[in-house]
Amino acid sequence: MLKKKWVKVGIVFLAILLIIDVLGSFYFYDLAIKREKKDFLQENDDLVVSREAMDVFVSGGWHEWVDNQEFEYWEIQSFDDLRLQGYYLEAEEPTNKTVVFAHGYLGRARDMGIFGEYYYKELGYNILSVDLRGHGQSQGDYIGFGWHSRLDMVDWINRLLEKQGEDTEIILHGISMGAATVLMTSGEELPKNVKAIVADSPYTSVYDLFDYQMGRMFKLPSFRSRY
Fold it and tell me: Which keywords describe this protein according to UniProt (predicted)?
């Protein structure tokens, strides 16, 4: 009789743990992955930068430069039927060199104008800056942290080859999540036209990223994000 009682207690305890785990999964999905405003990024110590860097990003002259350019609107269909948006700017002088930009978490193609102005003015490159899936004008209900976008980047590369021909030389340049995206893209079978990859501040893995944030924000042990 006592044994049956403990079995029932154990079952109830496991059921409660399962419910907590499921509810927690939905909560953390909405917190970090679902496409929506992320309030937890406000007052986040990990995002603190120097006043000079913030001034450049918020009110630097590159904003005016972006506004004054006549970007072509490009669109591709992803492997899972999402409409993805890109913005192409042809160099002032004919060239076969193009940089493809990938922005960071919750960013958009426009943000990469902070680097695009230099590539355009100083290096004479064509520019293709894309809204990653789940961001900007591209479709997508969730943020994949680069894993699905790596295949989208391959499609953007192929779109460039269609327009510019087989002698095109391409640089992939990403920042933060975009940096992780271009590194993941490098693991795919890419054409020889991709000559270089610039990865500015990527994460080692999404597991490591989530482990760190779960510990910092919620004091949870690292194994929690590996479920």
Answer: Membrane, Transmembrane, Transmembrane helix
